[in-house]
Amino acid sequence: MMLLQIILAPGRKLVHRIGWLAFAVSLYTTILSLIVATQITDGKHLIEIYEWAPTIGLALGLRADGLSIPLVMTVSLLSVVNAGENQ
Q1: Fewest CB within 10 angstroms: 23, 31, 36, 71, which?
Q2: How far is Cα 26 from Cα 64, in angstroms, rounded to an integer?
Q3: Average pLDDT for residues 80-85, to the nearest whole number?
Q4: Count of alpha carbons within 13 Å of 49, Cβ hemisphere only?
Q5: Sign (positive/negative) of CA torsion 66, 71, 77, 79?
Q6: Burial (0-12, 13-18, 19+ Cβ within 10 Å), 67
Q7: How many Cα atoms within 13 Å fall on the side-chain side of residue 9?
Q8: CB under 8 Å to 69, separation ≥6 — which residues?
Q9: pTM of the entire structure?
Q10: pLDDT band at residue 4, thresholds of 50, 70 and 90?
Q11: What DSSP string runs through 21-73?
Q12: 36 or 87, higher pLDDT
């Protein structure tokens, strides 16, 4: 029982810092999403292709366009709000 308290004691101090970490990461991704959104509104289409298994021709393709950016922005803004509330 004493060992469990020794292991969990630093965790109680880190609880408040983890909220700030979640907020910082969410804010960072929201800023990156805003940068991509400004490029999309200028008429660009962003496409990323990653070779997953090139021997059999499998690749992962990601595309950002006018339909996906509002969804990305909504999710990232809600993440920032949620992480900000939980501090």
Answers
A1: 71
A2: 19
A3: 86
A4: 7
A5: negative
A6: exposed
A7: 7
A8: 33, 36, 37, 40
A9: 0.68
A10: low
A11: HHHHHHHHHHHHHHHHHHHHHTT--EEEEEEEETTTTEEEEEEE-TTHHHHHH
A12: 36
From first CA to last CA, the distance across the chain in angstroms is 29
For 7, the token pair is 């292991």
Residues in contact with 86: Cβ distance below 8 Å, sequence separation at least 6, in sequence order = 19, 22
Q: In angstroms, rounded to a whole number, what is the distance separating the alpha carbons of residues 64 and 30?
A: 15
* Tokens (6 digits) for 68: 């996906």
Q: Do residues 66 and 39 touch, judged by C-beta distance below 8 A?
A: no
Q: Measured between alpha carbons, how far is 41 from 52 in angstroms, rounded to an integer?
A: 30
